[in-house]
TrEMBL record:
<dbReference type="InterPro" id="IPR015353">
    <property type="entry name" value="Rubisco_LSMT_subst-bd"/>
</dbReference>
<protein>
    <submittedName>
        <fullName>SETD4 protein</fullName>
    </submittedName>
</protein>
<feature type="domain" description="SET">
    <location>
        <begin position="42"/>
        <end position="272"/>
    </location>
</feature>
<dbReference type="Pfam" id="PF09273">
    <property type="entry name" value="Rubis-subs-bind"/>
</dbReference>
<dbReference type="InterPro" id="IPR046341">
    <property type="entry name" value="SET_dom_sf"/>
</dbReference>
<dbReference type="InterPro" id="IPR044429">
    <property type="entry name" value="SETD4_SET"/>
</dbReference>
<dbReference type="InterPro" id="IPR001214">
    <property type="entry name" value="SET_dom"/>
</dbReference>
<dbReference type="GO" id="GO:0016279">
    <property type="term" value="F:protein-lysine N-methyltransferase activity"/>
</dbReference>
<dbReference type="Pfam" id="PF00856">
    <property type="entry name" value="SET"/>
</dbReference>
<dbReference type="InterPro" id="IPR050600">
    <property type="entry name" value="SETD3_SETD6_MTase"/>
</dbReference>
<dbReference type="InterPro" id="IPR016852">
    <property type="entry name" value="SET_MeTrfase"/>
</dbReference>
Length: 438
């Protein structure tokens, strides 16, 4: 008897483990029951998707039936979407219409989210607000010690993102104060910086693209945002293809799959062919084995490998800059990019070859020596970036031990840098073969 019970125990454990790898159904949780009820009241009918927790992607949606290419994943009626139209038809509408200079569509949506969150039980949007993340991992929300560990180009963009939200907050204070008649509490305590940062991240990470006609009460920034409850639980994979957009006939936002998905598996969509730096910047996550990912080489790093004594160095740098060959230089899964090699060939031109720089920029070969030197320098830069990445990964693992509160943020940097290391090691291997070949 004991023996057979042990076997079923093992079986059950295996089954439980498998279900956890596939996804643990969460649709019985109160917040999702309330959300589905709320969506149903607004005309959303769906029987195939369930909220679930997944091992790799976290919270997402699983399908209860197999999906084939060409199947409709989800169709969310217009009445469920949160747009600037929603904001204008709320009690904020009159205040926005009167305010000069006009607010941006983005600020209008941020203001609405903060106001509805503050309203708590009284908000008709409460079932949606309850399933939104309480905190985000966009670079703007990362701690300074974590930002320091990001690759140079991303570090700069993270700083810019932070500054942009601070600037939005500073420039919106007078508008927030004008809303005082709507609230019993001080608007200063409701519309504080952390509330705006949360609202901005909600829109930046979760919005779908939906063009709206320009309204006079808004500034000239494009009005292209819509928050889509439930639909925004769908996670990203670079390896799937979907077709998405607003269907004028059905007045619904629809997503159609071009891939297959097995029963009880996570339904994944593609947010676009983004590399990991862009995914982290815009959405606050990193995709493993992302085919679109690459490691950026800054102009400073590039120029370290060329002698300042080269009389033509200044002219070469100027030519590369004018023809936009000092930006977006990368190593990818296929090795150094054509742009990176072209920049290296331009900087490696011997004095007697300098006159043929135009040919180099068009992809022609100047000389075997020039090709060899460009490949050799690419290998050195690749090696330098490998060592730099390994050093940062060491710092990350030490910080993870010492700073318990930064664990989630550091895990993101670790994933990003580990992917970078894989790409650089692959590039080093390719370059080694190319150098041996020449």
């Amino acid at each position: 008897m004991k023996k057979s019970r042990g076997r079923t125990g093992r079986k059950r454990r295996r089954k439980h483990l498998k279900s956890f790898m596939d996804g643990v159904n969460c649709s019985h949780k109160l917040e999702y029951i309330k959300l589905k009820k709320w969506l149903k009241e607004r005309g959303f009918e769906d029987s195939n998707l369930r909220a679930a927790e997944f091992w790799e992607t976290g919270r997402g949606l699983m399908t209860t039936k197999a999906l084939q290419a060409g199947d409709l994943i989800i169709s969310l009626p217009e009445s469920c979407l949160l747009t600037t139209g929603t904001v204008l038809s709320s009690c904020l509408g009159g205040h926005i219409e009167k305010w000069k200079p006009p607010v941006s569509p983005l600020l209008a949506l941020c203001t609405f989210l903060i106001a509805e969150k503050h309203a708590g039980e009284k908000s008709p949007w409460k079932p949606y607000l309850d399933v939104l993340p309480r905190a985000y991992t966009c670079p703007a929300c990362l701690e300074p010690d974590v930002i320091k560990l990001l690759p140079k180009p991303l570090k700069k963009k993270a700083q810019e993102q932070k500054t942009m939200i601070q600037e939005l907050f500073r420039s919106s204070k007078a508008f927030f104060s004008s809303l005082q008649p709507l609230f019993a509490e001080s608007t200063g305590s409701i519309f504080n910086f952390s509330a705006l940062e949360w609202a901005w991240c909600t829109i930046n990470t979760r919005t779908i693209y939906m063009k709206h006609p320009h309204r006079e009460c808004f500034s000239l920034e494009p009005d292209v945002y819509a928050l889509a409850p439930y639909l925004d639980l769908l996670n990203h994979s670079p390896n799937v293809q979907v077709k998405a957009g607003f269907n004028e006939q059905t007045r619904s936002y629809e997503i159609w799959t071009n891939s297959q998905c097995k029963k009880y598996q996570e339904v994944l969509i593609c947010y676009g062919p983004h590399d990991n730096q862009r995914l982290l910047l815009e959405y606050g996550f990193v995709a493993m084995d992302n085919p679109h990912s690459s490691v950026y080489v800054s102009a400073d790093t590039l120029l370290k490998y060329f002698s300042p004594l080269d009389k033509q160095r200044k002219a070469k740098v100027s030519i590369l800059k004018d023809h936009d060959f000092l930006e977006n230089l990368t190593f990818g899964w296929e090795g150094p990019s054509w742009r990176l090699l072209t920049a290296l060939k331009g900087l490696s031109l011997a004095p007697e070859e300098f006159a043929c720089w135009r040919r180099i920029l068009l992809g022609d070969v100047s000389s075997a020596r020039n090709e060899q030197q460009a490949l050799g320098t690419a290998a050195k830069i690749c090696q330098f970036l490998i060592e730099e990445t390994q050093h940062v990964l060491l710092q990350v693992s030490q910080l993870k031990r010492d700073e318990e509160n930064l664990k989630t943020q550091l895990a993101l940097v670790e994933m990003l840098r580990s992917e970078d290391l894989k790409i650089l090691q692959k590039s080093a291997e390719i370059l080694c073969n190319l150098n041996l070949g020449t």
